[in-house]
């Protein structure tokens, strides 16, 4: 790349809210060498709290202001104009709506290279949406999945060979917690007695928070004292707060709302729980494992590719609060098991799921495609 202009990359995503895909986009835009890549981010609906973080690092963030679909044709026109104005060599789209509208806009804008990353397993797509995605797959230079399980699902859904989809696993870096924020969280939780179990995820139905709350009720009924910390926000919050109250857990469950950095929550948690019903390869789980926190997770999506039950964490089937409670209590009651699994969890992430490994894979993909054009 010596003597050549940097490759211009435009990431397109729904927003820069606090979420796994959003963090990966900021990580990629900020982490790849500026000598090789000149990057920007385009968000469809709203900027989100991570936009300021990106801009502080010198990454331009463009905002379309609405979903550029049939109902908002002017938003689509703005998207095409934004892509053309940045003049990218590569457009890299992320998540469901950007993967559709972003790829169409990139092709209309004459972008040489288009990449789409599937971050999740989407089982509820409308047939017409899948039909458009199948058409787009033949006009995409690289299809990327965050895990082998997501690749298999995407292969079946799009009717393409799995070998044509590249796996670029998510990766995380060690983040230093803020002592002030950790202290504030500990003070907020108080000295309720027993262990602290917690999760970090958007409050949507697919994340399975309901089963964590019901598992906590099982633990209470079995005389196991614990406090539950729920970091994140979303449309399910009111229902989950009502459920916690209905289960008699209002004084044991703390809804923290959006927490920008997992590192500020994990030091206060003894057991990290991921009760999801569907997943891709969740960043919060990787962050918990890298931080040396014992984990209990559901066996969905790419999670079993990371967590080996009894080796570096515990796996249970989704939507089963009894099994979830059993796994949690086994870690609460055995500090030795908790410490052993936590140590192995950290080693797992350090040897294959780091931010550095993620950035290296992404850089190699970009350079390989650029060389072909």
Could you characterize what this model shows?
- This protein is α/β, with parallel strands linked by helices and 373 residues long.
- The chain has 2 domains: 184 residues, Rossmann fold (3-Layer(aba) Sandwich), CATH 3.40.50.2000; 172 residues, Glycogen Phosphorylase B (Rossmann fold), CATH 3.40.50.2000.
- It has 14 helices and 13 strands.
- The strands form 2 sheets. A 7-stranded parallel β-sheet has the order 3-2-1-4-5-6-7, sandwiched between helices.
- α11 links the parallel β12 and β13.
- The chain is globular, with a radius of gyration of 21 Å.
- The two termini are 14 Å apart.
- The model has no long low-confidence stretch (mean pLDDT 95).
Put the structure in a nutshell:
Helices cover 43% and strands 18% of the residues. It is of the alpha/beta class and 373 residues long. It folds into two domains: 184 residues, Glycogen Phosphorylase B (Rossmann fold, 3-Layer(aba) Sandwich), CATH 3.40.50; 172 residues, Rossmann fold (3-Layer(aba) Sandwich).
**Looking at this structure, what is the CATH superfamily of the largest domain?**
Glycogen Phosphorylase B
Question: How many structurally independent domains?
Answer: 2
- In CATH, the architecture of the largest domain is 3-Layer(aba) Sandwich
**CATH class identity of the largest domain:** Alpha Beta
Strand content: 15-25%
Radius of gyration: 21 Å
Q: Strand count, sense and closure of the main sheet?
A: 7 strands, parallel
Order of helices and strands: EHEHEHEHEHEHEHEHEHEEHEHEHHH
| Uncertain stretches of 5 or more adjacent residues | none
Instruction: Classify the helix fraction into a percent range.
Output: 40-55%
> Any idea of the CATH topology of the largest domain?
Rossmann fold
């Amino acid at each position: 790349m010596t003597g050549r202009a940097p490759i211009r990359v435009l990431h397109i995503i729904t927003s820069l809210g606090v979420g796994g895909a959003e963090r990966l986009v900021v990580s990629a835009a900020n982490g790849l060498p500026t000598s090789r890549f000149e990057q920007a981010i385009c968000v469809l609906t709203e900027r989100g709290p991570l936009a300021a973080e990106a801009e502080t690092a010198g990454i331009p963030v463009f905002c379309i202001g609405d979903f550029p679909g049939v109902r908002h044709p002017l938003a689509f026109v703005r998207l095409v104009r934004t892509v053309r104005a940045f003049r990218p060599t590569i457009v890299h789209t992320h998540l469901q709506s950007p993967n559709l509208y972003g790829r169409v806009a990139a092709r209309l804008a004459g972008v040489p290279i288009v990449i789409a990353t599937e971050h999740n397993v989407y089982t509820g797509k409308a047939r017409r949406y899948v039909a458009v995605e199948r058409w787009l797959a033949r006009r995409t230079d690289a299809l990327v999945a965050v895990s082998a399980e997501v690749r298999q699902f995407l292969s079946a859904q799009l009717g393409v060979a799995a070998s044509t989809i590249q796996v670029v696993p998510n990766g995380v870096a060690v983040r230093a917690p803020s002592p002030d924020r950790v202290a504030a969280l500990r003070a907020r939780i108080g000295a309720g007695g027993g262990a602290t179990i917690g999760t970090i995820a958007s409050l949507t139905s697919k994340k399975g928070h309901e089963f964590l709350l019901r598992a906590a009720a099982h633990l209470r009924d079995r005389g196991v004292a614990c406090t539950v910390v729920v970091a994140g926000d979303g449309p399910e919050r009111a229902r989950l707060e009502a459920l916690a109250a209905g289960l008699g857990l209002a004084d044991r469950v703390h809804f923290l709302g959006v927490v920008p950095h997992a590192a500020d929550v994990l030091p206060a948690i003894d057991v990290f729980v991921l009760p999801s019903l569907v997943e891709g390869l969740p960043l919060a789980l990787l962050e918990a494992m890298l931080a040396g926190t014992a984990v209990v997770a559901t066996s969905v999506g790419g999670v079993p590719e990371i967590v080996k039950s009894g080796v570096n964490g515990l796996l249970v089937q989704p939507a089963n609060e009894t099994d979830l409670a059993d796994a949690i209590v086994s870690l609460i009651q055995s500090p030795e098991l908790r410490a052993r699994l936590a140590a192995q969890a950290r080693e797992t992430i350090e040897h294959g799921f780091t931010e550095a490994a993620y950035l290296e894979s992404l850089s190699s993909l970009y350079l390989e495609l650029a060389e072909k054009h």
